[in-house]
Protein 1
Amino acid sequence: MDSTLIEQASDLDRGNYPGDLGTMEMNLNALEHITRTCVEQGIHTDRPQLMKEIAEQAIAEGHSGMNYLAVYEDFKRAAHAA
């Protein structure tokens, strides 16, 4: 765990995911680019594809203007379902 995540822990606890430094759409755009580049270079796409799908799901659930940490809401929901 690096210092950035430690600094963001209180936002995670409060469900506060400000998109002022980057939105879910920006992350999705980057992940689409990374996935496409992996395909073009013959590199495994499993992880970037998974991260892209997670971002797409978060956007579908209304977290589009938030930062990527908003995916935590999906992880919390999945943990409660188990």
Protein 2
Amino acid sequence: MRDLIARTLAWVLSVLTPRRPGRHSVAYLSVPAERAPASPWSCPWTAPSSAEVRAIFGDERTRELPELQRERVYAAAFARLGVDYDFPTMALGSIVRRERAAA
């Protein structure tokens, strides 16, 4: 008798609770599957070309400028291309004074 009550209760609960559609039902097949993210290699190259970068760093007018101004000119040239330039060629040890942190 307990088995019959348990099966009846399980059937009632399965009818009353919402479930996802079965794998072969129309409702399941009509929902589009999630697409895999696109490969980064499928996007076009958005960074400046090597010729553009060589033109920026090889400019003769910037050779006689002080180091800080030269880096600012580089940053402005890269900004015109739409690229963020964070002064990677500048030795920051001469500008930023580093002090040891007390441990």
